[in-house]
Design brief:
The structure holds two protein chains of two kinds. By secondary structure, chain A is of the alpha/beta class. Chain A folds into three domains: 4-11 and 107-254, Rossmann fold (3-Layer(aba) Sandwich), CATH 3.40.50; 262-356, Roll (Ubiquitin-like (UB roll)), CATH 3.10.20; 381-447, no CATH class. Chain A has helices at residues 116-125, 164-167, 172-185, 200-203, 222-229, 243-254, 286-289, 391-399, 403-408, 420-425, 432-447, and strands at 4-6, 20-23, 31-34, 44-46, 53-54, 59-63, 70-72, 77-84, 90-97, 133-135, 139-140, 149-153, 189-194, 209-214, 238-240, 261-267, 275-280, 298-302, 309-310, 323-328, 334-335. In chain A, helix 3 crosses helix 6. By secondary structure, chain B is mostly helical. Chain B has one domain (3-13, 31-184, 193-364). Chain B contains 16 helices and one strand. In chain B, helix 4 (108-118) runs parallel beside helix 6. Chain B is globular and about 65 Å long. The relative contact order of chain B is 0.10. The chains are: A alpha/beta, B mainly alpha. Chains A and B meet through strand 21, helix 10 and helix 11 of A and strand 1, helix 2 and helix 16 of B. Strand 21 (334-335) of chain A pairs antiparallel with strand 1 (14-15) of chain B, so a sheet runs across the interface.
């Protein structure tokens, strides 16, 4: 068996509200949405107009600058509204579910027998292409290129993240078919697995390289795994895809239909019964939250608390998410909060007396716990980024818009999720992920994706 | 109109209701206020000991028998005004600058305001404290843009300013004991610090135990290595102070001390005869290592750099101490010197990281 790659730096935030490994009851909601803002650097061009009929797999919009990138409907029904924000930027394409689940049939096929071109064309046509994301920059992969490798993280180490083994139960065949597709697309396929889980499915795969990781979050981040297996240098491209998406890709070939169903982990301290649910990509979250929320002002996050987006009660599940987390909003003043002993407060430092209490899980809210300041404390970021990268200097290079330094200091290897923990621990309360995104946008603009 | 001032008081009383907008939804409970208040707490043992020692040295020099509380009372009457003046001046300037810039008031001075009194001789006139603090905050910090932007440790800058501007009040044998400067007919040698005495050839005026406990004349908070180490424990355990810097400073100092013990066995320089271990307990060495060198803003910001930075501080502190005949204290200058070079150290660490990354690419291709 291959050796275990031990991740030493990092942090598992002990949040309350882990999902129990049982399936809860739910039904699909009346409203769905695909959000162009889920994709970095996308300029959507609408194909379907408001009020028109759609099926599962009908193209809703495409990328103005890469028209071959198509985005399709996850549901059959009608296009209800196109919600726009500032400068008419499209935020959400809202669809009304007619419950019929009519789907466009792309025909069955055996990936092993297809040539790469036909395979790519099929993925593009069916709207499955956006599952493939490129490192660097975390943008949708360029179908004209062949990557150095495709990496899959077989586990999610983020706070309260779903258990992938559990998620994939019953989908083994589709997953294997999906992996066949990956093998056609790239010369190498790597899967990172956790030393803590059985990962039977992953071990049964043929022709992929399996790497075992141990340690705290972000060990499950695919970027960290790439860094330790085969780091990205200038000019190199790596593609990544998530396990549930591989299942969708697999089904696209075995059934001919684009299946958007997802198993979702409903988590967080404000969920009465955290559990797993069979749901669908883009679906309104309201249905899963029904009768399952605590009182009070809440924040509904699609994804995990580090990288997810605040969608609110009426929001929709994000394109790449298989988790919903609910935490208290915490927009309250706290009298002398910085001076009290703080027995119930979580901190990596031992400045609050919560270190007396080791095993506890915490109910964290969305309060910032302080104001934004200049960078003062040093070495904080380094403790939670298990890469040979100097995060503080990289961020300063971004702030200074120094492209050379950004390149030299490892900009190609990190995306927002990798530095999310840096943002969590930051005493100065900087928006680390937003700064990093700015840097990536700058590099794309100046050097091309 | 007084938005920054209002803000400062509001956030002092309440942690604000602001929530995360972009990026992470939860954050660590720590903030700048908490960080700074922990450092101030870590300074408390040294402060309390300093207050007692001020009284103790005063009565000892006068030959008057006094009780514990008499000593504390005398010390408090001398030390508290210095602290009040330091905070008053510094915070006043901070508020004015924050107001002009429309910024929030930085918490950095909460620590500097306590550090400054602790590194001054107790007999210093209060107006000098005002001038030095103003110099440190304006020239040392605000002209660079405030906390987090400064090059040198502001508290040490205050001391350096006093040292060069008013050497008579900052050195010699009579400033270290409360009430000594005004007194007539006292034997100045009684008031000499251990280092001062060593220069004069009396290198074993105090035993290592006395200097470790701190019952010797010296700057208010610097004398007791024990009290300082208590503070170091707090800083290291909470994760606020860098243990790497502290250990490497002590390592550097110890090594340099050993070298001098070996080289200077025959030398007439009394400072060479002080044992390496005792060097670490004298003057501002321990205080500087624990509270000054670890200031993250002016220290090296890379983890590898911290080892080098700390080690060189220790080496230079002893080196300057031994070879600078005018002023037998090297810690202040050593730290300020390494503050200046910290960005250079970081530069080399960063370059090494870049080279590693480039090498990787070449091997692949």
């Amino acid at each position: 068996m291959s050796e275990v790659i031990k991740i030493k730096k990092g942090l598992d935030i002990p949040l309350a509200g882990k999902a129990e490994k049982v399936f809860g009851q739910t039904q699909l909601p009346g409203l769905f949405a695909i959000k162009p803002v889920d994709f970095h650097g996308l300029t959507p061009k609408m194909v379907v107009k408001e009020g028109e009929q759609v099926q599962i797999g009908t193209v809703l919009f495409y990328d103005k600058y890469r028209p071959e990138l198509k985005f399709v409907s996850p549901v059959s029904g009608t296009l209800k509204a196109v919600i726009r924000g500032e400068r008419r930027r499209i935020l959400e394409v809202v669809l009304e579910n007619d419950g019929k689940d009519d789907a466009v049939d792309f025909g069955t096929a055996v990936p092993a027998q297809m040539d790469r071109e036909a395979l790519v064309a099929r993925l593009l046509e069916s709207g499955a292409w956006p599952y493939f994301r490129q490192r660097p920059y975390d943008v949708i992969a360029n179908p004209q290129e062949t990557p150095k490798a495709i990496f899959v993280s077989g586990f999610d180490s983020a706070p309260l993240a779903p258990d992938m083994d559990f998620l994939l139960t019953g989908e083994e065949e589709a997953f294997k078919t999906g992996v066949e597709v990956l093998k056609k697309l790239a010369p190498e396929v790597h899967i990172g697995i956790s030393s803590d889980s059985a990962s039977k499915l992953y071990h049964s795969l043929q022709g992929v390289q399996v790497h075992t990781f141990a340690g705290p979050h972000p060990a499950g981040n695919v970027g960290v795994q790439i860094h330790h297996v085969s780091p990205i240098n200038k000019g190199e491209k790596v593609w990544v895809i998530q396990p549930q998406e591989i299942v969708s890709v697999g089904k696209l070939f075995s059934t001919g239909k684009h299946d958007f169903s997802r198993v979702l982990a409903l988590t967080g301290s404000e969920v009465l019964k955290p559990c797993y649910l069979r749901y669908r990509l883009g679906a309104a979250v309201s249905e899963v939250l029904k009768n399952n929320l605590a009182e009070g002002k809440l924040r509904i996050v699609s994804g995990n608390v580090l990288t997810g987006s605040n969608v609110g009660q009426d929001g929709y599940l994000g394109f790449y998410h298989s988790q919903v987390t609910v935490i208290p909003e915490g927009d309250e003043y706290e009298f002398l909060g910085w001076a009290l002993p703080g027995f119930g407060k979580f901190s990596v430092s031992r400045t609050f007396f919560s270190w007396l209490n080791k095993k506890k899980t915490y109910k964290l809210d969305a309060n910032m716990h302080g104001g934004e300041r200049a960078i003062v404390v040093s070495g904080q970021y380094d403790k939670v980024l298990p890469m040979d990268i100097l995060p503080e200097f990289l961020l300063k290079a971004v702030l200074a818009e120094d492209l050379d330094k950004m390149e030299q200091l490892g900009m190609y290897e990190v995306v927002e999720e990798d530095l999310a923990l840096c943002e969590f621990v930051d005493t100065s309360k900087l928006e680390v992920q937003a700064i990093l995104r700015k840097g990536m946008d700058l590099m794309i603009r100046e050097l091309g994706a | 109109m007084l938005h920054s001032t209002y803000d400062a008081f509001e956030t002092l009383l309440f942690v604000p209701d602001k929530t995360n907008k972009n990026g992470v939804h939860v954050r660590d409970a720590i903030d700048m206020k908490r960080t700074m208040i922990v450092v101030v707490l870590a300074l408390v043992p040294a402060l309390l000991f300093g207050i007692w020692n001020t009284g103790y040295q005063h009565f000892l020099a006068q030959g008057i028998a006094a009780g514990f509380w008499d000593m504390v009372l005398h010390g408090a009457l001398r030390v508290v005004p210095i602290i009040v003046v330091s905070y008053g001046t510094g915070l006043g300037i901070e508020f004015i600058f924050a107001q002009i810039r429309g910024h929030e008031v930085n918490e950095g001075f909460l620590v500097s305001g306590m550090l400054i009194p602790l590194i001054l001789p107790v007999d210093l006139p209060l107006w000098m404290v005002v001038v030095a603090t103003a110099f440190a905050v304006i020239i040392g910090k605000e002209i660079f843009g405030g906390s987090g932007m400064n090059i040198w440790n502001p508290a040490l800058l205050a001391r350096a300013f006093l040292f060069f501007a008013y050497p008579a009040q900052m050195s010699g044998d009579i400033v270290w004991i409360s009430g000594f400067s005004g007194m007539e007919g006292v034997d100045a040698a009684t008031g000499a610090t251990a280092l001062g005495a060593a220069v004069a050839g009396n290198s074993d005026k105090f035993s290592i135990m006395e200097s470790f406990l701190g019952i010797i004349p010296g700057s208010i908070g610097e004398t007791s290595t024990l009290a300082i180490l208590l503070g170091a424990l707090v800083l290291i355990y909470t994760g606020i102070g860098s243990w790497k810097v502290m250990t490497s400073v002590f390592a550097g100092g110890l090594l340099m001390g050993l070298v001098f013990n070996w080289l200077g066995a025959e030398s007439s320089n009394g400072l060479m005869h002080i044992s390496a271990l005792q060097h670490l307990t004298l003057g501002g060495f321990a205080f500087g290592a624990v509270f000054m060198a670890t200031d993250p803003v002016s220290a090296s910001r890379t983890e590898a750099g911290k080892w080098i930075y700390g080690f060189l501080i220790g080496v230079f502190a002893i080196l300057i101490r031994v070879f600078n005949p005018a002023y037998p204290e090297g810690m202040m200058l050593a730290i300020l010197l390494m503050n200046t070079f910290a960005p250079l150290i970081d530069h080399f660490v960063v370059e090494a990281n870049i080279k590693r990354r480039l090498k990787r690419a070449v091997v692949k291709a």
